[in-house]
């Protein structure tokens, strides 16, 4: 089976995938990345364009000697994954777009990108990270996952927050959706405060080989709120996709 590459979103990091990686690694290699400016790479200079993050992801995969892979992108990472799908099509066996959309300015988000930028500058990185993380979970600060996610988000410095917001705000993947030929799974929590249904629907209706899974009573971090369901859905897609690829390559 091809490796599964995981790309986190804004203020995320590879550690958010610890449980998922542990359960998936029995079947395949799992490669969770830390984007520059975030997580374990918080010391690196961030990028302010989604396209540059996409090229960085492709480079990281190639440096590890991986020629074919399946890619999962969450939130801002889903924007990056859409860019990777357009640039590295022949290397992708499958694409999972999780809690994300095709419009970087994220219409319908709990607050505008401009407001997040203003408050980040006024309140500082740690206060902003803690405040935004609460919106990602159904029970907000009362969620069992909140301390872990908040600690990870707080590792990002203000320049990384501002660069990430800039990167999202100036990106749109709408025009490229119909050209994504990779089999794609779209996963969305129906109580997501960051991405609303019209964005998810546009992904689903525009990407030719796409399937949709809506997880009820989940917010932006469904893989932490309903990990068993999330893992089953992901495993089913990976298994089905792998079987299809095998059939297609039979002599």
Amino-to-carboxy terminus distance: 18 Å
* Residue windows where pLDDT falls under 50 for at least 5 positions: 246-251
Sheet-strand content, in percent, reads: 5-15%
The largest beta-sheet arranges its strands as: 2-1-3-4-5-6
Task: List its traits.
251 residues; alpha/beta; disordered C terminus; 6-stranded parallel beta sheet; 45% helix
Please describe what this structure looks like:
- 45% of the residues lie in helices and 13% in strands.
- Mean pLDDT is 94; it is low at 246-251.
- With 251 residues, the chain is of the alpha/beta class.
- 46% of the residues are buried.
- Helix 2 crosses helix 3 and helix 4 packs across helix 5.
- It has a 6-stranded parallel sheet, sandwiched between helices.
- The longest helix has 22 residues, at 227-248.
- The radius of gyration is 17 Å and the shape is globular.
- It has 10 helices and 6 strands, in the order E-H-E-H-E-H-E-H-H-H-H-E-H-E-H-H.
